[in-house]
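FAQ

Q: What does a record look like?
A: Structure on top, sequence underneath. For example:
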């Protein structure tokens, strides 16, 4: 069924079922689940019980104007930049730094989504559940292109290994 509005991806990378309200309608998202809904452009609210269990809701007003990403409290995500095409300007286009996760050291260009912010406007090329393209078509004026991918922190190592194997 087709519905109008902007795509909103909702992710629960946590270990507990996330119960929340969007504009007063209650939703449940199981651990590890991803859901997609459409919301009309304009003002909306996300509400959920406070982590302390005091029964007081946390209320987050947000504005939808394009694709959005919502996630459960406490989830950690990173934005991974990678380069397609010529690698000649790699050191200029990427700010690769050493990054350790799960006792493995990586050298990549990553930044973190703010863990205190649970509502994000999509400003990356590939989202949760999407992979970096193996190849992209560069324009006639391009020698290279930088693409950004959103990942759950837990999925980073696996995706890094897969990407490295292709290169």
């Amino acid at each position: 069924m087709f519905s109008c509005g902007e795509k909103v991806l909702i992710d629960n990378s946590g270990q507990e079922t996330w119960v929340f309200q969007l504009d007063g309608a209650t939703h449940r998202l199981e651990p590890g689940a991803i859901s997609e809904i459409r919301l009309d452009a304009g003002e909306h609210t996300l509400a959920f019980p406070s982590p302390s269990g005091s029964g007081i809701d946390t209320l987050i007003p947000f504005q939808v104007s394009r694709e959005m990403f919502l996630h459960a409290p406490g989830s950690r995500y990173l934005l991974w930049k990678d380069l397609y095409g010529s690698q000649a300007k790699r050191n200029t286009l990427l700010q690769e730094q050493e990054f350790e996760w799960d006792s493995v050291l990586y050298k990549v260009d990553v930044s973190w989504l703010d863990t205190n912010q649970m509502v994000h406007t999509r400003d990356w090329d590939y989202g949760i559940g999407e992979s970096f393209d193996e190849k992209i078509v560069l324009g006639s004026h391009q020698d290279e292109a930088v693409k950004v991918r959103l990942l759950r922190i837990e999925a980073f190592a696996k995706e890094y290994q897969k990407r490295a194997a292709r290169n």
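Q: Is there anything notable about this one?
A: The chain has a mean pLDDT of 88.
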